[in-house]
Design a protein that fits this description.
Shape: globular
Order of helices and strands: HEEHEEHHEHEHEEHEHEEHEHH
CATH topology of the largest domain: BirA Bifunctional Protein, domain 2
CATH architecture of the largest domain: 2-Layer Sandwich
CATH class of the largest domain: Alpha Beta
Mean pLDDT: 95
Number of domains: 2
Strand order of the largest sheet: 3-7-8-12-11-10-9
CATH superfamily of the largest domain: Bira Bifunctional Protein, Domain 2
Length: 302
């Protein structure tokens, strides 16, 4: 039995995760949720003085915004759409017959105006653009959302529906790169507080196809993305639990995000993978939170 499966089985047995019959889709037990809530309070303590505007979007977003974002050009393998039955009564009869015969019943399912949110920040950019030019100091936003990535796996750290906590900065190049560096430093301090071993490395997003390889190489060459890595199911291949991303003016140009003087805004974001961080804590400190080291418990629960 490999390490991934063994850890996942223990999570199921302890009630921390709840099996649904679909790889990467899990329920969460109360103790698991308590750890995530405590870790979010720790994030809050580090970010509280920055004055970020808190916004919470649902796990679905406007399909038109999603299409304009270009996500399907870069990551079609990860996207999830929401479909609903759009047929008439006769179509419904056919659907029921298919279900009774254990056949495919999805023929009359049509795409709705909602897609599953791929990253917590995606609904933010068009929302802020509609407000007009940014204030002189730029914009800073605190987000949290369930996100979807279609990558089924028995690795508990690679889930299909998971929560992402993000801070997003919009401003000048200097403002957003300073923001990113600040959170790279904070991220290491936060993980030290909860006793987790980390490394930070340059990274790239999983762009699709032959053209995607060039985009990934460009992203790495320009140091646009860094990840904070923690061993969870593999020491050789530690898991990305935080990411630090500089988008240059890509989102500013796409969405019409402008600074107070009318010039195009640059953007950057820091993302916390909340389930992954909780899993890292359980992996390194054990499945019984009452037995965790006292400094870790103090950092999380005071």
């Amino acid at each position: 039995m490999d390490m991934q499966t063994s850890f996942l089985d223990r999570l199921f047995e302890s009630g921390l995760l709840i099996e649904t019959g679909v790889d990467g889709l899990y329920g969460r037990g109360g103790r698991f949720e308590d750890v995530i809530a405590a870790f979010e309070r720790l994030i809050d303590r580090y970010g509280a003085g920055d004055g970020a505007e808190a916004i919470r979007f649902p796990p679905g977003m406007n399909r038109a915004y999603f299409e304009k974002s270009g996500y399907m050009k870069s990551f079609p393998q990860l996207a999830g759409t929401v479909h609903s039955f759009c047929g008439n009564e006769l179509d419904h009869i056919g659907l029921l017959k298919c279900m009774d015969a254990d056949e495919d019943w999805t023929a009359e399912q049509k795409a709705t105006d909602i897609v599953l949110t791929p990253a917590a920040c995606y609904p933010l950019y068009p929302t802020i653009a509609k407000r007009g030019n940014l204030p002189e100091k730029g914009g800073l936003y605190d987000l949290q959302s369930y996100c979807f990535r279609h990558e089924p796996s028995n690795d508990p750290a690679r889930q299909q529906l998971f929560r992402m906590r993000e801070y997003v900065c919009m401003g000048s190049q200097e403002q957003v790169t300073d923001f990113r560096q600040t959170w790279m430093d904070r991220g290491q301090k936060i993980m030290a507080e909860v006793g987790l071993p980390v490394e930070i490395d340059v990274a790239n997003d999983p762009f699709f196809g032959r053209a995607g390889k060039m985009l990934a190489n460009n992203q790495r060459d320009q140091n646009l993305k860094f990840e904070l890595l923690i061993p969870i199911t593999s020491v050789a291949k530690p898991t990305a639990c935080m990411s630090f991303n500089y988008h240059q003016d890509a989102f500013g140009t796409k969405w019409g995000l402008n600074l107070a003087d009318g010039s195009v805004a640059h953007t950057a974001c820091v993302g916390f993978g909340l389930e992954r961080i909780a899993l890292a804590l359980f992996h390194h400190h054990g499945l019984d939170v009452d037995q965790w080291p006292a400094p870790v418990r103090k950092a999380l629960w005071g």
